[in-house]
């Protein structure tokens, strides 16, 4: 039986902008190797796999090469599919059971709002290879749960930055976040994210790094709400509100492709004969 699969551009209201994610709707657990193969075939930064489990959805994410512990844009994409296709009502909250605990997504008047754990950074000395990988003067270096954070002084140089991916790949972490104070009044900060260890040299628009950047910039700017822009070639905007140990990340999404995965020998496809999304 075919497995429903979608491609959703996240953190954008326009097709072919933001960050594309695969969303695969299952009717129950699927083999890890099969999900990894699907993600490699999709070639997006992440593909989300989810199925109904009581009142929540079990959610896992895979890059083309590894399973990841937290992903923002693919979570936004998964929730978008559930709301758009009627698996959840407009006033319901999408609840996901993940390796990073429960994540929630609700609809707002302007799109979707993710509720994620905050991930404050601690100052550290730059690890070997970081300066070679990010050839700009550092204003700050910090370490969060998965990533290193580097602050640089120039937004213009951040946009033009050409990293050394081989050097970054030798650093034991998920990836490196590079950020600067924005030089444009519509944003408080700019960022880019490099994760060659996870098969994603540069991610287009990364929701999970806002768990770091939201608290980081909110503290420095004396605000509870900040707006950021990821200055990748596709680009995307974030609105982040810090709520103690949690943060709210707002964004939009648009479906650009829907179809079925023709592989009846793997996984358990979603059963659409009953109530939407109820396994």
How would you describe this structure to a colleague?
- It is globular, with a radius of gyration of 18 Å.
- By secondary structure, the protein is an alpha+beta fold.
- The protein has helices at 32-42, 72-84, 130-133, 155-160, 165-169, 210-221; strands spanning 3-10, 19-25, 47-53, 56-62, 67-68, 93-98, 101-108, 111-117, 122-123, 138-143, 147-152, 175-181, 189-195, 200-203, 225-230, 236-243, 246-251, 253-261.
- The chain contains six helices and 18 strands.
- Residues 269-279 have low confidence and may be disordered.
Question: Any descriptors?
Answer:
41% strand, 2 domains, alpha+beta, single chain, 279 residues, Diaminopimelate Epimerase, Chain A, domain 1, globular, disordered C terminus, 18 strands, 18-stranded mixed beta sheet
Indicate the topology:
Elements: E1 3-10, E2 19-25, H1 32-42, E3 47-53, E4 56-62, E5 67-68, H2 72-84, E6 93-98, E7 101-108, E8 111-117, E9 122-123, H3 130-133, E10 138-143, E11 147-152, H4 155-160, H5 165-169, E12 175-181, E13 189-195, E14 200-203, H6 210-221, E15 225-230, E16 236-243, E17 246-251, E18 253-261
Parallel strand pairs: 2-3, 4-6, 11-12, 13-15
Antiparallel strand pairs: 1-2, 1-18, 3-4, 4-5, 6-7, 7-8, 8-17, 9-10, 10-11, 12-13, 13-14, 15-16, 16-17
């Amino acid at each position: 039986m075919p497995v429903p699969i979608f491609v959703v551009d996240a953190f954008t209201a326009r097709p072919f902008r933001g960050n594309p994610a695969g969303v695969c709707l299952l009717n129950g657990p699927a083999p890890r190797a099969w999900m990894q193969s699907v993600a490699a075939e999709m070639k997006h930064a992440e593909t989300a796999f989810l199925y109904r489990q009581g009142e929540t959805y079990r959610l896992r994410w895979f890059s083309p090469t590894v399973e990841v512990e937290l992903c923002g844009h693919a979570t936004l994409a998964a929730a978008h599919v559930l709301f758009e296709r009627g698996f959840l009502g407009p006033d319901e909250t999408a609840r996901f059971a993940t390796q990073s605990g429960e994540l929630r997504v609700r609809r707002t008047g302007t799109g979707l709002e993710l509720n994620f754990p905050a991930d404050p950074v601690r100052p550290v000395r730059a690890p070997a290879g970081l300066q070679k990988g990010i050839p700009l003067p550092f204003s700050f270096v910090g370490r969060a749960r998965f990533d290193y954070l580097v602050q640089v002084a120039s937004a213009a140089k951040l946009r033009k930055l050409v990293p050394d991916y081989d050097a970054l790949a030798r650093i034991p972490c998920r990836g490196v976040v590079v950020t600067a104070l924005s030089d444009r009044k519509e944003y408080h900060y700019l960022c880019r994210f490099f994760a060659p260890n996870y098969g994603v040299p540069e991610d287009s628009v990364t929701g999970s790094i806002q768990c770091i950047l939201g608290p980081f910039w909110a503290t420095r700017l004396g605000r509870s709400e900040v707006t950021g822009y990821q200055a990748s070639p596709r680009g995307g905007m974030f609105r982040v509100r810090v709520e103690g140990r949690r943060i709210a990340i707002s964004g939009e999404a648009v479906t650009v492709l829907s179809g079925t995965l023709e592989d009846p020998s793997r996984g358990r496809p979603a059963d659409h004969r009953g109530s939407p999304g109820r396994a």
